[in-house]
């Protein structure tokens, strides 16, 4: 089979049996510009004829993505990679990957070529061929933090992030620590100060928000399936106030339909159930004196993975950004 | 070290890192007649000097118990086996183990020697050296069913059992199907009509209750950690009534302190939280016309495993049956 | 405002803030033939100008439905009532409502007029003006039971039903017994043998399945939000076998797209997560000797309430039965 | 009845049907120096003959405690109050109670008399007659924070607290917002920056730790029954290091058996299940550069309420501090 001559595209999803991969297929199968979605897993990628697919989505571990990306790009197909393999490109990247991902980077030539697809902060152009889809925690955090950093509203030395994630974030691989009986009843801090999304947040706080930051970054595992809620705490800079904050969010998100911002913290605005199943980011904040308490919530498998990958697919192909995503909705 | 000359005993727990093994150690460590509890796992049993322990508790898979029991008995120590390895002794036992446990029995000579330790229905005497501690579902079911069967109160052809268990029943081994995200939100029927506790229930319904039965037996996995609730449904025999049922439970459990029976189904009496953490069995029933609806609840890790093993240990050593068990209590 | 002259309809939902009412609005808001959805609650129905709405959905308690139905029908609008108010029409209905619903029926004249909307067993015709939308448990049970009863495949005296429901079934009203801390960790039998869906199941087993039955009917509350799984246990009649059962389901559901039937019990086919969020019924069964173990699963808020109401709305208006329902899907 | 002449005491628990009250009775019923425990609720306190009880425990709302305390003290009995009624005694207390508890204080004369019973930081002497038992969040936070503040190890301007609590913290009162279906699947921030335990933390940081602080204080509701885990984030002061921190915890907790401190964050040390059911505080921390990430975990109903009340009872009566508490243990 050759590339589809019509406007509809053939795409592949590698790692299609994981939680993100399943959600990705669910979205792509309904996409009006997608003709077919073919799923592969690590055992079957050898059978994938890359040139059949205009775009290959990788919902694979970072080490698998590193191996597959060079081969796929060489065949002329585009890649949207949901792993962390191509997100860190500043500083000593080899050292970075060893430190944060505990592995040697096998495809470092492609790091600078990769486009970090944080939508709407870094929208991909048509000519982009490799997209590093942002990490789930990094997405939730940056969506809340970048407006504040970009306009210098907060003391960048005061930032503390305490983010909690549903257990699908850990993937579907059998492990004793993720058994039902080990997770139920818990709210478990893990990888404290050493989560691989910390350098990702730092790199893009700088490149997209213009600020070097070195925040506290604490991550906890919730006994729920889906959803991330990131608490972001910081001090406002002198002379900055609630109006500046409100304006910042209005300015940056005026034309982005997949975000909702509230100037107060209501239950509805910080409910995980209210973002789970949707492609949205919800941000709610409260200012007490000079302190800002901000919560940014997403579905870790959608805006934190699959739906943001589709946003990138849409941008890359100049489809409206919310194509197939605007019908998503939450359930009671 | 030789056997403890004092009244305090040295015991071993093999399989001490599993859920039942941990609970067992917790109880034995507080037992007033236990001097020491030594835990072994499958990697370390080679180091176990059997003769050091008056009693060895096996909280191991059936195949491991089959291997260990002959060696331990040979050394003169007693065994309380929490696995299913020595519970089925009627009929073609080799065939039975192949059918229900999917394995060849490697120690069939010991099957008839094993004492099935369902307390208070089959209390072990001092001279017993091998106790087959009953299965969790079988315990919950038989505790509710035997009084009815023993006095011929119900139509033995009409029995339907729908039993639900917390996820600790599946053990602590890593598996994809027991991941938090796979169990949460579910109530999953499994091994329908083919659970290995069915022949166990049948054998002891006959030998302890005097009735051959061939019940429906459905088992489901709950998204909770601990507790079994077995729904038992049957038709009363002609001329049998509520008073007969009440009398049956009074008669059989008059001298057994670890059971509570209610002649109505109240929330308190069918709450899993109200048995979890205790050594008790709770039975509540309701008769509508000729139908009896009966619920029998236990903590699957205690009466369904560790605390019944301690009851057997107490009986075997002529300690009061509730030693170390009567202080157990539930939490709000 | 007068009735919409175009093909699009204006509808009202009374009781729109409850769980079923919210789901119903979510579906109707996307319905291609619905122009507007107006929500009312018990405080605001006085403001409802009934004649503005071609159809009024009542997601109200039975006592409220009894009061509203006569007034709405008098105004010429049609009603789809999700409560139990108009489901029992056989025998001494006044007595029935007192026994099962603990209330006097205030609109008994409408009981015979009401059409019991179990789809696809009793599809509404265009001229129907009052639909009694079936109860959640009754739907799950009848969908599994009717094919067996209709063809005389099972011994009608042997039927035992053990059905479990997520907690949304109890509604959104504040109560101590439904607090998170009271439900979590439980699988709570309630209304044993006296649930109001029992006479509903009996009436329609007879009128739609041609059999008088008097089954065991046990209901339990699960510590999960959504989904019902009904275990149905019965003996096959002599000479009836697996093939007969398979044929029965094929025959009755050949043209109904919203059901899936499996001749074996796989995890996927009995997973609540796999029906939650969809309008589907999933049926899986296994025959062991002469025993049939059957599981019927639905989303209690959808096929058990809102989506079946939409099926009835579609039938009543001669829209394709799956309109707005076929896009519903489950999430990992 | 007059006061018990023997060494055993008669005590009363008011508010005995709430979660804390039930746990408190469970502990007191086993207390070797307690002769009898009599429970009252708000409807039955009129029947309480105060002089019959050497100590009255109040597990009541603050407004009820304010009413009962003067009367009880007048009768010569001692009070251990688990509410917040007598915890804030600095500054404009009337204003404080209006701001944080939304009520007028009706017994302000007793505020200075009340002893804040944070054990082991402020152990009650024999002559104390009114103990304000600390709040659950305040206890978890102060146990982790006071060693650091007392020795000036952290920058008091940098403190951020993100604390999460199980749902029993909200009590047993019926409310829509605490229904199972509203809490399940969530991790809900609430009372952000305005929780009444914030001024409590501030007052005792100063009086017991010698530092004025104005921390970020965020509280979230977990979808679990029991347990609090407080994340405490701060910058170390210049020249302070890991050794200083380790020494601080060793110094302050050397003689207190109900705390465990780890110099690394392991899963075991931050597991809620590992503190639930016990009277212990668990503290684990990690230092990354100059940042300290510290987690302090307790059972909100025990160390956060009932068991700390028993510690105070023990101190007040010069019993060993862990009387009846050292046998508490966790379950798998």
Provide a descriptive summary of the structure in words:
The structure is a homotetramer of 332-residue chains. In chain A, the strands form two sheets. Chain A has a seven-stranded mixed β-sheet with strand order 8-9-7-10-13-12-11. In chain A, strands 2-1-3-4-6-5 form a six-stranded parallel β-sheet, sandwiched between helices. Chain A folds into two domains: 9-133 and 305-316, Rossmann fold; 137-298, Dihydrodipicolinate Reductase, domain 2 (2-Layer Sandwich). Helices cover 27% and strands 21% of the residues of chain A. In chain A, α1 links the parallel β1 (9-14) and β2 (34-40). With 332 residues, the first copy, chain A, is α/β, with parallel strands linked by helices.
Query: By helix and strand content of chain A, what is the structural category?
Result: alpha/beta
Q: Please, what is the CATH homologous superfamily of the largest domain in chain A?
A: Dihydrodipicolinate Reductase, domain 2
Instruction: Estimate the strand proportion of chain A.
Output: 15-25%
The count of helical stretches of chain A stands at 9
Number of domains of chain A: 2
List how many beta strands of chain A DSSP finds. 13
Shape of chain A: globular
Strand order of the largest sheet of chain A: 8-9-7-10-13-12-11
CATH fold field value of the largest domain in chain A: Dihydrodipicolinate Reductase, domain 2
> Which CATH class of the largest domain in chain A applies here?
Alpha Beta
- C-alpha-based Rg of chain A, rounded: 19 Å
Q: What oligomeric state do these chains adopt?
A: homotetramer
Q: Which sequence of SSEs, written as H and E, runs from N to C of chain A?
A: EHEEHEHEEHEHEHEEHEHEEH
Kindly report the greatest chain-chain contact and the residue count on each side.
Answer: B-C, 41 and 41 residues
Helix content of chain A: 25-40%
Distance N to C terminus of chain A: 44 Å
CATH architecture of the largest domain in chain A: 2-Layer Sandwich
Largest sheet of chain A, if any? Answer: 7 strands, mixed
Q: What is the arithmetic mean of pLDDT of chain A?
A: 95
């Amino acid at each position: 089979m050759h590339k589809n001559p019509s406007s509809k595209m053939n795409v592949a999803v590698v790692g299609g049996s994981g939680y993100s991969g399943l959600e990705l297929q669910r979205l792509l199968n309904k996409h009006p510009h997608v003709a077919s979605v073919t799923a592969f897993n690590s055992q079957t990628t050898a059978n994938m004829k890359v040139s059949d697919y205009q775009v290959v989505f990788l919902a694979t571990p970072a080490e698998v993505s590193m191996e597959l990306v060079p081969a796929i790009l060489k065949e002329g197909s585009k890649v949207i990679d949901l792993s962390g393999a191509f997100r860190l490109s500043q500083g000593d990247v080899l050292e970075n990957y060893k430190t944060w991902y505990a592995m040697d980077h096998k495809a470092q030539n492609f790091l600078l070529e990769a486009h970090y697809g944080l939508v709407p902060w870094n929208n991909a152009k048509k000519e982009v061929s490799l997209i590093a889809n942002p990490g789930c925690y990094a997405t939730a955090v940056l969506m809340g933090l970048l407006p504040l950093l970009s306009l210098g509203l907060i003391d960048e030395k005061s930032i503390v992030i305490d983010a909690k994630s549903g257990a699908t974030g850990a993937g579907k691989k059998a492990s004793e620590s993720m058994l039902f009986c080990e997770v139920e009843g818990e709210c478990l801090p893990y990888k404290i100060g050493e989560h691989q999304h910390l350098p990702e947040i730092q790199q893009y706080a700088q490149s997209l928000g213009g600020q070097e930051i070195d925040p506290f970054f604490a991550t906890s595992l919730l006994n729920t399936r889906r959803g991330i809620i990131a608490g972001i705490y910081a001090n406002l800079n002198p002379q900055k106030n609630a109006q500046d904050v409100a304006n910042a969010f209005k300015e940056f998100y005026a034309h982005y339909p997949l975000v909702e911002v509230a100037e107060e913290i209501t239950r509805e605005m910080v409910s995980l159930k209210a973002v789970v199943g949707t492609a949205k980011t919800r941000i709610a904040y409260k200012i007490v004196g000079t302190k800002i308490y901000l919560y940014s919530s997403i579905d870790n498998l959608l805006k934190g993975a699959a739906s943001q990958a589709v946003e990138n697919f849409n941008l890359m192909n100049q489809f409206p950004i919310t194509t197939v995503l605007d019908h998503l909705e939450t359930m009671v």
